[in-house]
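Give me the 3D structure for C-type lectin domain-containing protein.
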Amino acid sequence: MSKKIFAYGNGTIKYANYDIFSFNANQSCEKCTLQHKVWIPNIVFQKFVEAASNPSMKAAQAALSSQTPFLEVSIGDMFFRGYKDPFLDKVCSIPFMNFICEAVLDLPEKIAFLAELNNTWNDIFQVSTGEMDGGVTLGQIESWNGEKYVPDSWWADEFSTSIYFVFDKEVEYRGVNAYRFIVSPDLFDWNQPENGAFCFNSGKEFFKKDEQCLPRGLIDISRCRRGEPPVVLSLPNFLYADDIVKDSIIGLNESSPEHDGIAITLEPSNRVMNFFEMRQRRTIRSTIAPSQIEKPYSMNNLNHTMD
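Predicted structure for C-type lectin domain-containing protein (307 residues):
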């Protein structure tokens, strides 16, 4: 992370945090390189599965025979350079399929998980340099995105929802008294009235029949991304998720707020963040609806839902 300076003078500096993602070989395993190959779910394949479930797009079902549910790609392509589905050009050249590829699926030419996040900036801070008062106000935040006061919650683009923290306890961090705040257990609880608008009925059945929205602890962020890839996000280690979610995952360790919670520690006087702790897990869920389309040969040995 670096700083993008917009203005400097009159005792203030206006800047934004510039996010840069890069591979650090020194902090990676000995044999880990950007050329290392991994198997990942084929997002393009999943999009064709969804299109094929529409009776008016039977051409998409025929195209599934030339694709596979998983792809072998390099780490560098997956995160930074982008990988190209080897079957995409072939499939999209089929009559009528070019319309599905361009208009309906909205597929990018290459897929890279960090491409749209790398080299970007969001919030703009105006901070005092302390030059006008002998350093008394050095580091004091004067405005955030042009506002003098911050909202009670903030909007996270990755979740397409607001996030709020609740007070946990008073702590001491490196000799400084501070307040610890944690993500509320109700953040992804769709039974809560304030979360009702995020209970999105996608028409898919992940865990049970007639499912109106995802179980507690999961949020569908498909509509937050170009092409609406089938991505479901949870708190680390599926913290606060319903048992029906945890029981569906073989080998999952028991989650706990102590090990898997997201927390921030703030110094109360200056409201400076002392510490931020979070573990992150992303789950790409591949879904097939047997009642809507016939399974292609490549999917015959796969379960209804996979992590």
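Residues 280-307 have pLDDT under 50 and may be disordered. Let me know if you want a second pass.
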